[in-house]
Amino acid sequence: MAPRGLLGALSLSLLLGLLHFSIPGAIGTLESVPDLEKAMYLNMESFPCVRLLNLSGEIGCANPGNEKIIAPIVRFGNNHDQLDRSSAVFLPLELMQSFFQRVSSDLEFSKKVAGVLVESSGQQNNSFGFSPVEKFPQADFAPYKNHSYEWNPVGSGIMWNRYNFPVFLLSAQSTLILQEIANNDAESNNKYPAHVAEFDLVMQTTKVGTHDSESCLKEQSCLPLGGYSVWSSLPPINASLMKPLKPVVMAIASLDSASFFRDRSLGADSPISGLIALLTAVDALSNVEGLDKLKKQLVFAVFTGEAWGYLGSRKFLQELEMGTDSVNGLNNTLVEQVLEVGSVGKGLVQGGTTFYAHAGGKSSLTKEILSALQSASISLGSDNVKVKTADTSNPGIPPSSLMTFLRKSSSTSGVVLEDFDSSFINRFYHSHLDDPSNINSSSIAAAAALVARSLYVLTAGDLPLNLMALNSIKVNVSLVDELIGCLLTCEPGLSCGIVRKYISPSNICPSHYVGVFLDSPPDTQFPQYADDTSRFVWNFLADRTSIKRDTSSSCAGECSNVGEICIGVEIEGKGRCVKSTTRYVPAYSTRLKFEDNWWHVLPPNSSDPMGAVDPIWTESFWNTIGLRVYRVQSATYDRIILVGGMSITITSYIAVIAVRAYLAKAVKRD
């Protein structure tokens, strides 16, 4: 064993010497293959743009084939820079919009783009706007014909194009690392050694050649976008009672956003500010006594999938029409008025707060909603919360879930509360820059107070208004701040106290991309794959709308008493039963059917007028997604390494012969 040990030590010392020589800048001792890999490759924290499909084709990003892409990194300083070879473009965020517009219009240029690395924004720059969606988002679903109106003036539409190369948004830390690498390469005049990027963004739809939703669902290379909406009533609805049910006032909001980059979809102003305002309003109303004695029933609904064809609201209305278990206790004839809480995070101006009421129609019930908003505004007095009716020159209501209600029935009485009048003031609509720095918590708190008091006025109906009860409705401002921290930041993110009270989140950093629908639709009241935000909203609403009791029984799943549900069960299996009418509602395209354990596209149906314009969005499967950077050497350097390796081999061989000869002589002497 001695000769082998001596030989191994000699070979290892020679090999590590060569490795240290071949990796300039290597620090410390390389003792294993993982050490070597860490020294050679930098895994970059980043967020991909992925491949999405619809009935007419593809959008988003992917490797062009089945293999990883490797290309030298070229930093762009302005949009007139040229590429002389296939390159990975390192791009400042300010150039992103014009760069992708150039890619779409210049075929020769686009052929040389092997991949794109987008710098993190760092501190948000409000001097420019960035919205990768259309100037009229989802115009095909509008209940009016003017689809050329610009609700989103800064919208570029670059998100809806197909890019045959990978694109990643770098994290702040990865941006700094790559900036240093690019600067060092530039100082060496881009001569060797140079750095390359290795992109692993191979999509299953590319592998099997399915390039639209119908074909990829047929070949099972994709899944439909979707998730779970939630609705709840205050007080709970007893559907078993024989007495007539009350007319319903619905307060709705959205919980999903979109972005060019899949996992960076925060949507702080649009729409999460509205969600936070609605949850805070529910919290305030849950403390009001005597709601069961008022003329109307309060129902809250939070829809997901709204950024992708209004999946949540459309499916909710379909379930309502069909009378499924997910909407037990409701029916479509009972919904009398709808108040939607839209973008309300930027209403703070000049010491006061101003919101705009966008009315869907001119019915007397719609006017009641507008009147209730004004009454609530007046009751807030010194808080200086104003409500203005949106400009009558607007073509109709802005992009919102209320559009689907109006498309389903033009007689729907509804209003959308927004922080803008004739066009979005959110200059980062549906982009990763719509983050907490883009909103004001005071504006959201003001909206919550306005909504809570307006809903109280509406549910009172024609009863004399109890001004003492109205003025007692106050929102918990600290709850607004806490929900912003939970739903829009990574610290504390979904590890915050109020979320941990109900669920065990799968991720700490929130993202409000809808994702794909993974469950079997019949099992929607006990979903296995509802996302963190939907599960939190379900538990929060169930708790806040439940009938208050001194004691409650524990549970590990279902509750034995009729009308009870188990909340907080994810926390060590120690849930508690509460009496609440809170339900999950599946959110996926109304033109999809789950049959024989898979999804099938249905033809358009005259009973579903929005189905004819439904894109039916799907997302491709993939195995792994990754981005790493490493240094490559010149051909001369490679030859030196080759010669060095051969020298080591020859030297090792000679050493073996010499050691064996020496040991043989030593053994003979003994």
TrEMBL record:
It is a single-pass type I membrane protein. Residues 48-205 form the Nicastrin small lobe domain. Residues 1-28 form the signal peptide. It comes from the Eukaryota. InterPro entries: Ncstrn_small, Nicastrin. The chain crosses the membrane at residues 640-663. One of its GO terms (cellular component) is plasma membrane. It is found in: Membrane. GO terms for biological process: Notch signaling pathway; protein processing. Its main location: membrane. Pfam families: Ncstrn_small, Nicastrin. Keywords: Glycoprotein, Membrane, Notch signaling pathway, Signal, Transmembrane, Transmembrane helix. Belongs to the nicastrin family. This is Nicastrin. It comes from Ananas comosus var. bracteatus (red pineapple).
